[in-house]
């Protein structure tokens, strides 16, 4: 008996030693991606607004009831795509995913719409508009286009499924085709960001490139019900060719005018439109969008490595400037002296993994292995931080969470790119606008 006791004790101690060693073994790249993608996905699953199932505008861990019924349209579109990725990765069952997506789309169908466009913010418990600003109390065509991008992916993923899935696909198709893109021209050859019954065109924000809005023009051209002609794209988005404004940072070139940001705008400009719209090989008369998105990411990375403003914590494994929470409110951080506030947002590097895989993986690993206690929470990495200011808020923004889930999936499998690019209406829209892409069928 005594020998058996010691044998069992030795086995137990050996097992404990092995397990302890395992705890110290770094995660493989795939395990790290699984971990980040799964937890960030939970923002749109476990953290969703209860009544609508849609994406909450923000979630503050230290203030769980703060604006907890306000949902945001763009992040809901990203979340829809993220749920598809979650189903495909078996983070949730297919049936549960269908049920949640049906709930979200039913909410969107009944929520306030303005010529088919949703507002920027919606109360999840009522479906009524929450004004984004004084005059912004109606349709937001840019945020709506992000939803449309997600709805196309829903249609393509479920169109050949069982009866419930086919009904979901049909509802997704119906909702995006009810968006009256042509109305938002305001009878001009450009798309306007906003319109409301009360303030009409008072926001007066025509949308020109280059920024996050390319997919709005693509969806507008793709619409078989309320579409636009190519001249709206050429005179609007491309400004009759004035979108072309070559520049470079340390011999990494940019082709387009980035709204006054000579080294590239906030990095989300390389993400939001390209969650479904595959930028790789995507060219038109004005430039190559895949090269632009990659080079914008590389410049953003190199700026942080160079760290011309000598901020603490900037280096090759900790980088990424985009619009996010900032030490003083919210800011559009970018690689430019007046726009770099010493604030890094993990979403910037993570969502750029399709363009900068080595640099993005290095940042994810560094943050997870070395700064997890300050930067990591229930729904993945917190929105932003500043080592210079010793500032580590436990806050999330839906619009920054969504691209991480989707772009990690596109990096791993290309799933959302495949779904969006195979859509027959999207294909027709891209051809109408004169795009070339290896993903366009003849």
TrEMBL record:
Pfam families per UniProt: Glycoamylase
InterPro entries assigned to the protein according to its UniProt record, in alphabetical order: Glycoamylase-like_cons_dom (IPR019282), UCP028431 (IPR016883)
Family annotation (Gene3D superfamilies): 1.50.10.140
Domain spans labelled Glycoamylase-like: 206-422
Source organism, top-level taxon: Bacteria
Protein name: Glucoamylase family protein
Source organism: Pedobacter alpinus
């Amino acid at each position: 008996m005594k020998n058996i006791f010691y044998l069992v004790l030795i086995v137990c101690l050996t097992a404990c030693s092995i397990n302890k060693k395992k705890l110290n073994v770094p995660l493989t790249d795939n395990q790290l991606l699984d971990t980040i993608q799964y937890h960030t996905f939970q923002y749109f699953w476990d953290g969703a607004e209860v009544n609508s199932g849609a994406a909450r505008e923000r979630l503050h861990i230290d203030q769980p009831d703060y604006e907890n019924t306000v949902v945001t349209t763009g992040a809901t579109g990203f979340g829809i795509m993220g749920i598809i990725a979650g189903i495909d990765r078996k983070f949730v069952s297919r049936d549960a995913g269908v049920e949640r997506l049906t709930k979200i789309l039913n909410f969107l169908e009944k929520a306030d719409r303005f010529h088919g466009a949703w507002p920027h913010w919606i109360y999840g418990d009522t479906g009524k508009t929450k004004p984004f600003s004084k005059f912004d109390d109606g349709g937001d065509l840019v945020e709506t286009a992000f939803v449309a991008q997600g709805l196309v992916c829903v249609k393509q993923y479920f169109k050949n499924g069982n009866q419930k899935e086919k009904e979901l696909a049909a509802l997704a198709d119906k909702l995006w085709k009810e968006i009256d893109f042509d109305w938002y021209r305001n009878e001009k050859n450009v798309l306007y960001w906003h319109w409301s019954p009360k303030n009409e065109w008072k926001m007066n924000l025509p949308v020109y490139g280059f920024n996050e809005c390319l997919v709005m023009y693509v969806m507008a051209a793709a619409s078989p019900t309320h579409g636009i002609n190519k001249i709206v794209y050429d005179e609007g988005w491309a400004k009759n060719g004035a979108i072309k404004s070559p520049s470079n940072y340390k011999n990494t070139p940019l082709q387009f005018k980035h709204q006054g940001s000579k080294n590239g705008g906030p990095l989300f400009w390389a993400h939001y439109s390209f969650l479904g719209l595959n930028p790789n090989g995507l060219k038109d008369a004005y430039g190559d969008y895949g090269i632009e998105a990659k080079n914008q990411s590389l410049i953003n990375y190199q700026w942080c490595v160079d760290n011309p403003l000598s901020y603490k914590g900037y280096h090759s494994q900790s980088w990424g400037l985009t619009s996010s929470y900032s030490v003083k409110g919210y800011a559009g951080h970018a690689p430019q002296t007046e726009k770099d506030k010493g604030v890094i947002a993990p979403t910037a590097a993570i969502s750029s993994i399709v363009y900068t895989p080595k640099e993005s993986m290095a940042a994810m690993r560094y943050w997870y292995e070395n700064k997890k206690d300050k930067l990591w929470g229930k729904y993945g990495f917190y929105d932003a931080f500043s080592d210079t200011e010793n500032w580590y808020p436990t806050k999330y923004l839906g619009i920054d969470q969504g691209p991480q889930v989707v772009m990690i999936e596109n990096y791993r499998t290309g799933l959302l790119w495949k779904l969006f690019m195979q859509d027959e209406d999207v294909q027709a829209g891209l051809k109408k606008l004169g795009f070339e892409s290896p993903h366009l069928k003849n």
